[in-house]
Target: FAD-binding PCMH-type domain-containing protein
Amino acid sequence: MGKAVVLTPDNLSELRDALKQATPKSKILAGGTDLVMAIHKNRINPDILIDLSGVKELKYIKLEDNHLHIGAMATFTQIKESESVRKHALCLAESAVLVGSNQIRNAGTIGGNIGNASPAGDTIPALMALEARARIMNSSGQVEEKDLNEIITGSGKTSLGCDQVITEIIIPVLGDAYRSTFAKLGSRTAVTIARLNIALVMKYDDTANTISDVRVGLGAIGVKAFRDRRVEGILNGRKADEHLAEVFAEELSVTVQMAIPGRYSLPYKKEAIKGLARDAWRQLFSRLVI
Ligand SMILES: Cc1cc2nc3c(=O)[nH]c(=O)nc-3n(C[C@H](O)[C@H](O)[C@H](O)COP(=O)(O)OP(=O)(O)OC[C@H]3O[C@@H](n4cnc5c(N)ncnc54)[C@H](O)[C@@H]3O)c2cc1C
Model:
């Protein structure tokens, strides 16, 4: 860390100037929970660190035009405590609750969770299931929006250029008929990275007891989180009964089998996902009479 030049912009305009100096060896520094450890372990040796902690314009959560707008520097603690997030994107709040420890939740940011691109990053399956998009700014101040699948290209890899920074996450608000939840394998207290996580979003018709617009985000299965369109197709339009809960569990197990064939963790994960699927289903429907 000693050799890196640390730039400390105080606002977006200074951030743009800082990005102009960035090289492929430079790094954005948010909460530092991943990055500082990577530097200490000599896994990376950046020439320039662009520290976002002074850019207060990136630390907000607001509801506007039927969308949640979350600044990249919003922490897990802010996200889990936000009334708006709990009301309109519950699975994201639940994913933030289950992150690491208090210290990590207080320092770690949503922008850093995406930028880190860990296959086990907790907010990522939730954001994918919520059909979130990220706003990205470059050194000229140009802004573009991308979905997470475009940004995260592999384990620890993103498509972001060295002069680009995630500034905001935009999430379409779920309507009243929607339910969402997040489940993760592992204890709530242990400071560990999830080895399996699921975000589940769906529209529930309580008269017909049917579900539609089902969205399943999966993490820690393969190199990056993904939406399981196959399982979504199987669930769409069906009655939300105990039988379907079992179909969900069994089909997710098939997904694991297809995603990581031959991997040493396969026998464990294809069983573990069933329990996690049942947990998620129970959480989602515990408020309902089926
Ligand atoms: C003990 C411990 C426990 C943890 N537990 C969990 C857990 O349970 N769940 C989980 O998901 N994660 C966990 N993590 C990982 C980490 O806390 C998260 O990934 C966190 O979101 C990282 O955010 P940060 O602000 O600290 O990012 P940083 O460490 O500052 O940055 C991480 C990466 O993202 C890039 N980056 C940061 N912000 C931006 C931005 N705005 N635009 C573009 N790139 C950016 C950085 O350049 C860097 O490559 C844990 C980490 C530790 C050390």
Q: What stands out?
A: The radius of gyration is 19 Å.
